[in-house]
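tmp note - Exo-alpha-(1->6)-L-arabinopyranosidase
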Amino acid sequence: MSRRRSAMLSASAALALALSLGAGPVRAAGDYPFRNPSLPLAQRVDDLLGRLTLDEKVSMLHQYAPAIDRLGVGMFKSGTEALHGVAWSTDIDNNGAVVTATGTVFPQALGLASTWDPALIKRVGSAVGDEARGFHAQNPRVWGLNLWAPVVNLLRDPRWGRNEEGYSEDPLLTGAISTAYGSGMEGDDPDHLKSAPTLKHYLANNNEISRDVTSSELPPRVKHEYDEAAFKPAISADAATGVMASYNLVNGRPNTVSPDLNDVVRSWTNRTLFNVSDAWAPNNLVQSEKYYATQAEADAALIKAGLDSMTVDDTNGGPTVAAVKEALSKGLLTQADVDDAVRHQLSIRFRLGEFDPDGGPYGKITKDVVNSPANQKLNRETAAKAMVLLKNSGGALPLKPGKKVAVVGPLADVLYTDWYSGALPYKVTPLAGIRERAKAVSSSEGVDRIALKDVATGRYISAPATGGDLKESAATAGATEQFDAFDWGQGVLTLRSAANGKYVSRANWSTLANTADQPSGWFVQEQFKLEQQTDGTFLLRYAGYETSESWFGPNAYVKAEADGSLSLTTADQATHYAKEVVSRGVDDAVAKAKDADVAVVVVGSMPFINGREAHDRTDMNLAEGQEALVKAVKKANPNTVVVLQNSYPTTINWEQANVPAILWTTHAGAETGHGLADVLYGDVNPAGRLTQTWYRSAAELPDILDYDIVKKDRTYLYYRGRPLYPFGYGLSYTSFAYQGLKAVQKGDAYEVSVKVTNTGSRAGDEVVQLYTHQHRSRVKQPVKQLRAFERVSLAPGQTKTVTMTVKKADLALWDVTRNKWTVENATHDILVGSSSEAVRQRSTINVRDEDIPHRDLSKTTRAIDFDDYSGVHLVDETKVRGDAVAGADGGWIAFRDVQLRKPAKVTVGVAAEAAGKIEVRLGSPNGTKVATIPVAATGGVYQWAAATAPVSGANGVKDVYVVFTGDVRVKDLTLS
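out:
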């Protein structure tokens, strides 16, 4: 059903697998050299590899590598989710029952990055690594030490359903936070790993719609300067031990078989990397993507490309073993290919201490570290430091302790987990945190309590007090007939039963039941809509995610049978209900607000509903009902503070214009309420900063599938509009002054220093941000680009000199004319301040290196190395490697500033299934035509041939346009 859900195995299934593979107590294996920790790592790996049979090696290519009892080698599971704490935490008790194991759940990844504090995040990563070890000590069959985190995909589009999992739209900030988190998870031992983090998801994976069949089209500059730049830092710093290949394609080739896995990613480090597939992705190559005809071909290709472990078929390694053996028998793979993949796995396992007699330096960590008091304290600190103060007018914050506070809103007294959260060991809600601090507290969720009456029979939908199937039975609306309706936007509601406090769900895939603790699961079957009809009645529509995937087609509407039981049917057969409002949530919230000195309205998202894995957002608005609540409370009490709790930029234009104070936080784990109260009451001076641009409307964004941030002016790097909140933005309870900026060249770097003074009356942190802008360039340059940052703590009146370094190489761009990094001769602005728009000090530096020469198309030039394009697609040259351009009628690619010396002939590498034509023009797509190249059908898109034509009238320095007629692919061209 779900690739990701299928990878999330129940503990019982994992136990059954472990036993079947002999992963119980291993037999004594003798004094093999591979067990000698004093020997070099490579020697130990080679010794064990040489003792394995080919069958044993092949079996290790699956996610669940079985035990090799004859050598005393245990089972190895790749992949434990650890995005912001160890996740999917289930275990088995002594009676064989599945139980939930709880650990520290830190703020969501976006919240971690919002601290702009790598030192703090390294501590968080270390705590996660400790707890992974603790869980592993408890049950190594369930919790492996190869951790699938962090996610470093850039947040170039805030509508991405998995925005909560990433760090930033900026590659430098993403690299700094991922390096900190990964290095903390790994530990500080030079030879051993506490845990083995894996970066997700390589590459350009930033849409959920059709994610396994859509292609992210990356021109070379975008690929090198932007997307790769997010992955390189952690790998280069040895803060990650590999990457997970993403579902999507890049330039027409599935990332599961991307040659980058070997050619690029492994070039960033001298360490051995262990690369893994995403769940079910190997099968996608044959099924949804239809890239290969057989699984043997697919598995051979992904192993050769650089994947070392296949996450597929749950715990069943049989299909993988069969496909790889077939590939070997047909010569698609060699034993050396298999050896390489297994060697990569073993290298990580040795570094984890698996084959050391004492388990290595981290082998003695026990489950006592899980949810330790120290980790709870760190969690509270992180939750507070991650919060971003978006507005604070008239000294609305911090709150004074003696005030009476009304805490209202649908998120006021609840903490939600997300798909990659562990289970919360305890919950300090916003209400609970504020209640510890305020003189008096009142509260209201601000949601309507409703009852639904069948207009035909007069019967109400009833829910059992003990939980169970809903049915129509009662003639009056008592407690068991009442439901709290939570509005999550775009008409989607969740219905919480007043009878038992549980949510209504299609948990049994047939009838409705009040049995869910919170909306959750892959399909999120707790989603409903009440659709008003022309006669004023309502249809109750089930809106779980599978309906959008055509699982049930139109059969999503609730119908009451003669016996009162509920089923799903079509709209024309559905039961019509009267919606009776038992109590209005807004009225209750307003009454509480009027009776308080301050109203704190907690609104935001439900992580399983408002965008998540497999489901992008279509807008960025606050839910309509929640915005109406904010407006009503603000009208009732001018002293209103909005706490926005979600995981993505939100278009809160009205709130910014009208509410005195706004504080934003992600879903921040068990200590959310304490962290929030610490900030609201001023114990912690907020210094979180936004890691994304907050736009005023989703209409400002291009199609989510358009990945060319340069051409489409995406992210703060190229966006030229006026955002609601800019990248790097965040306020403080104190003020800071900047002075004395200096930028001094020291060798191949520039040392930038500035004095920062706390000019207010409170101690606080400032995030000093350094940006540059290049004045003159051959190519389109960013409006500004983050080059360095530092979070500094200052007492009132204190001044610190903050020194940051910009390497000359940091200013390089990818030169498509010569396929290399180059630094241009240019003047650069040095911009230092508190956000990308709040520049407090500026200077310039004159960088001397080289001018990019005119293009020389007399040398064979790759088509993808164009300077501009329109109406074309970027595609795969072959299934193994290489990029090409696919043109259609009127499409074109352009090469700027070409030095033409009267070429006589043009030769183009082409592939086409049908005949077409290419024209070479100068100056524009409609400019002077200097060549027409007829293209004959070549026999297929991977069948390449040379097409030639004479050239006349091409001389001087000109822009050269290649204009397409017909579906023609071009891989290269030469003007000779």
